[in-house]
Amino acid sequence: MTVFKAIGNGAGTASRRPLxxxxxxxxxxxxxxxxxxxxxxxxxxxxxxxxxxRSLHALDFLWLGEAVYRYQSAxxxxxxGWLVLLAVYFGLSVFLNGGVIGRLLDREGRTTFQTFFADCxxxxxxxxxxxxxxxxxxxxxxxxxxxxxxxxxARAAERARTEWTPLGLSWARTLIALLLLSLLHMVFDYARxxxxxxxxxxxxxxxxxxxxxxxRRFFRAWALYLLVGAGLVAGAxxxxxxxxxIPGSGLAWLGLGLVWGQAFVVFRFWTKMVFFSAQAEYALGxxx
Length: 288
Description:
Layout: H1 3-15, H2 18-47, H3 51-55, H4 61-70, H5 75-105, H6 113-158, H7 164-197, H8 203-243, H9 251-287
């Protein structure tokens, strides 16, 4: 199967799973409200219906500095609450990935709440173990490879005669970090796919299958990953360009901005599903 055919089939499959997309979006929306609510309550309690409150920008740094100083005793509790919410959100994301991949790979079955959450529960333990394995790989990659590169570039930057050399080395370090991130993310995407597709209970064996598969088709698989990623970047660029044209005042414009923002969130989750589905199409299509 060609890369472009796999992406086309994957996009079609992701588009035919609206319930999975809705679950991801609603989950994200609920946690976003929970995270923003304490901040909104703080602004309302501090400013109420004052003239300053109506004219204050959301990121007014003068007010922000005063608020941090005034409520510094409450800051640890607020920060702890946010960290707990983020941890729960991350764990729930791992849980929901099982349902997303399970429904994307089940071409004949229906996507209902029952089948979706059954897949979530079936694969959750394996995905957690796979995540723990991925932490080791990420630590080795960024701690060793990127660490060694940083040591080399630091010496080169010290001997540089112009400011362009350190700047170029900094960009090179960022590029290598992004490439490492994409490679590791791709490897563990395929491992998750093999866990679900073959009902593999041993996550290390699934990871081995993913590495063996990528070893034979690495550049095509990476091209697929980068093409879908380029689509996400293009969508993000369109979102920010259009968002910049929406005026910041007025109830109607505020509503339009909120709708446009949520449309981008839906697009982001749809792209996540395309990543999984296109890679599954390519992996399973090549093995048939």
